[in-house]
Every structure is written in structure tokens, then in C-alpha cells.
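Researcher: Please predict.
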Amino acid sequence: MWRWPVVQARKEAVNNAKGKVFSLHAKLITLAAQKWGNPDDNPTLASAIYDAKKAWVPNDNITRSIKKWTGEDASAEQIQEIIYEWYAAGWVALLVNCLTDNKNRTVANIRHIFSKYGGNLGESGSVSWMFEKKWVIFLDAEKYNYDDIELLALETDVEDVWLELWYIKITTSVENFHNTVLFLEKKALELHESKIDYIPTTEIELTENEKVLKLTKMLEAFDEDEDVNYVSSNEIIAPELQAEVDEFIEKHSFRT
């Protein structure tokens, strides 16, 4: 009888996560379509549609998102992309990428999260210089061999390839992204995901439990916010320490 609140909470968390995924993909498509509504002539839009379909976003949602900026839905609110530069606990640098149709709401939410978990506002450019803007392509490491992908990468303008848990990550410049995707698809490789990300050039190690806890909770809060697309950060945390913090959070997550 007392199990229901926990199960219900987890179901709601899954549904909320799915809703955010659909919403963010819709915003990415709308943002890309603002530049040009034809995916054949707009590689950014083509990539956004591709990723949305991989995330099981319904076709009707995709079509509506494109119509918002092709003149067929003139009442649509404009989607803005905003990047906030902050420092988290331990002076970890954060770039928080948001997609929003209401800047005031987004600013208030982001400030609240940073304030709650000990963040500090950085001046414009104070954080971004520690990152490089890249396209990142993900392949399923269970489907493809890392060594084979690394050899293929030598045939195109890929900058780096590395294995990370369940995925093989490929980075390329913004300019070379479209040609890289076409090359990989011609090799019959199925892309798990592709996105713009900011790769840190300078990293900082966290060794204190309290700081790792604050950062982890902050990142969780960003993950739950409907306007946050992704967060780039430059922390290094020992796996054992992160596991200890994760265990603490899990024990205190679901209470009936």
C-alpha cells in the first residue's frame, strides 16, 4: 500500500523527462527553421529533425515545429537561444545553453538554481574562453567497434574520437559537421545523436564531498528545467567520490 507514492513519483519523473525531451527537440527544430524551413537546404534543421526522430518525437510535433517559422503559424512565439556563464561550487565553469520563448522566466529560473546551490555569476566571456564550440556525434559502442570507427575517422575531417561508457564520441568543427555526417551515413553507420557542445580546454578537479554534492544537485536541477538544452562544465571528479555522492542522493530521493 505504501509503495504507490514511490512508484507514482518515478512514473511522473519519467513522463516529465519525456515531455522535456519532446519540448527541447521542438524548440531546436523551430530555432533551426527560423533560418530556412527546408531541411534539404538547411543542414542544421536536417540534423534537428534527425535527432528528434531518434528520440521518438511524433511526426506531428516535428511538422508543427517547422510550421511555426515557415509562415503557416504566424502566432508562434520566437524561440531564442541564450547561453549563461556561471561558476559553480569549487569554481567549476559552466555554460548553460537555454532555448526559450520567455526570457524573463528563464532568467529567473536559472538565477534561482545557481543561488540555491552556491553558484556565482561570471562576466560575459569570463567562462566561455575555457571552452571550444564543436559538433559532437554519438555512436552506440555496443553496435560499433571503436578501432574501426577510429580508422574511418582518418578518411574525413574528424578532429577526435574517443570511447566514453556506452558511446563512441566524435568531435568535428562546426564547419565540417555536415560533410562528416554525410560521410558516416554513406558508411551505413547509424548516428545515435548529434549536437553542438562546448568542450572544455581547461579542467578543474573537485575533491570535497560537499562541493561535488552541490554541483550534482545543480546539474540535476538544470536537467529538470524545461528551458535548459544542455550544460557544459569543466569538472573532474574521481569515480569513487561521484559514486559516494550519487548513493547519498539516491537514499534521500524518494520518501513516502
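Model: Confidence is low (pLDDT under 50) at residues 1-16.
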